[in-house]
Design goal:
Helix content: 10-25%
Oligomer: single chain
Largest sheet: 4 strands, antiparallel
Strand order of the largest sheet: 1-2-3-4
Order of helices and strands: HEEEEEEEEEEEEEHEH
Number of helices: 3
Distance between the termini: 66 Å
Shape: elongated
Structural class: alpha+beta
């Protein structure tokens, strides 16, 4: 009898402890916006892709309409800026998601995205995407980048703004022999004629140039790089890590 009462008391104690402790929160497979969109997340929840453009805004999550268009199982993504996301899958196609439209737009993007949704790390963003009751959510975290990471500094690019207008200016110089002037009868003269032409048109390749310009700007932004694990031990490990940091990030920490 005493043993039964002890087992019942232990069971009640464990059940009370389970009720007091909240269940663990499931961190979703996701892609962070990086330096291009530091407050943005793309996460997979219940087999669908959800996007949050601004992690600080309440109810920021929006479901993307990818069914029948993009293969979620082989999804790759990359944020171009705070309002543009590029998607790709195992096919050669690429799609744009432009805020706030959740519908993908087919586009001949020059560089295929390389980031697949996976377990995200808690870096300087301070939040992680988690599973929620009706949509993904966010949970606060605090884990700055460790010694195995460095920030590749950005590069300054001097790119001309992409514009569909094309202006053509031309000068033509003609030498005229036996030039007969109106009103002078049959008299002729020799001279030089200068013609100036100005042409304005629309360039059909403007959209491709705009995409290439955005791609170059994304590659030139600062980026967080993960250093390979050092192979050396002891004092040589510090020198090897500094060499890897110099190669991947130009010596930046």
């Amino acid at each position: 009898m005493v043993l039964a009462l002890s087992l019942l008391a232990a069971l009640v104690t464990d059940l009370a402890a389970d009720l007091r402790e909240p269940p663990p929160q499931q961190v979703l497979a996701a892609v962070h916006g990086g330096f291009a969109a530091p407050t943005a997340w793309l996460a997979l929840w219940h087999g669908e892709a959800w996007i949050c453009w601004d992690a600080g805004a309440p109810g920021c999550w929006q479901r993307l309409e990818l069914a029948g268009v993009v293969d979620i199982a082989t999804l790759r993504a990359e944020f171009v800026d705070r309002s543009t996301l590029v998607l790709a899958d195992r096919s050669e196609a690429a799609w744009l998601i432009v805020r706030p439209d959740p519908t993908p737009r087919a586009t001949p993007w020059s560089t295929s995205p390389r980031n697949s949704p996976g377990p995200p790390g808690c870096g300087s963003t301070g939040v992680l995407p988690i599973a929620g009751p009706a949509s993904p959510g966010l949970i606060a975290c605090d884990a700055p980048p460790g010694e195995g990471q460095c920030v590749r500094p950005g590069r300054t690019l001097r790119l001309r703004p992409a514009s569909p207008l094309r202006l053509r200016v031309g000068l033509e110089l003609r030498a005229l022999d036996d030039w007969r002037l109106p009103g002078l009868g049959s008299s002729a003269a020799n001279g030089v004629q200068l013609l100036a032409t100005i042409g304005v048109g629309l360039d059909g390749a403007w959209t491709g140039q705009r995409r290439e310009r955005a791609d170059l700007q994304a590659q030139a932004r600062p980026a967080l790089r993960t250093l390979p694990a050092p192979r050396s031990r002891g004092p040589l490990m510090v020198g090897e890590r500094e060499a890897l940091r110099a190669v991947l990030c130009g010596g930046a920490t």
